[in-house]
Amino acid sequence: MADLMSGIIVGIVALPLAIAFGIASGVSPEKGIITAIIAGFIISLLGGSRVQIGGPTGAFIVIV
User: pTM of the prediction?
Assistant: First the structure.
């Protein structure tokens, strides 16, 4: 149940972030959402680790 709730919360946070990245990139907000969805599937297929950052928030790692 905790994983389901975590997934919902992450989805709620990632949605406006994906829209903002789409607009900032000069494309439509829909393309930002589609890219975030496709990237999420690709990241999950490639596996991961406890320290991996995936989804739209991964772009902020350059700043950190």
Answer: 0.69
* Cα-Cα end-to-end distance for the chain: 31
Using the Cα atoms of residue 12, residue 17, residue 22 and residue 26 in order, give the sign of their dihedral. Answer: positive
The domain in which residue 57 lies consists of 2-62
Task: Look at residue 30 in the predicted model and tell me its pLDDT.
Answer: 94
Number of domains in the chain: 1
Q: Which residues of 10-47 are buried (b: 16+ CB within 10 A; e: fewer)?
A: eeeebeebbbebbeeeeeeeebbbebbeeebeeeeeee
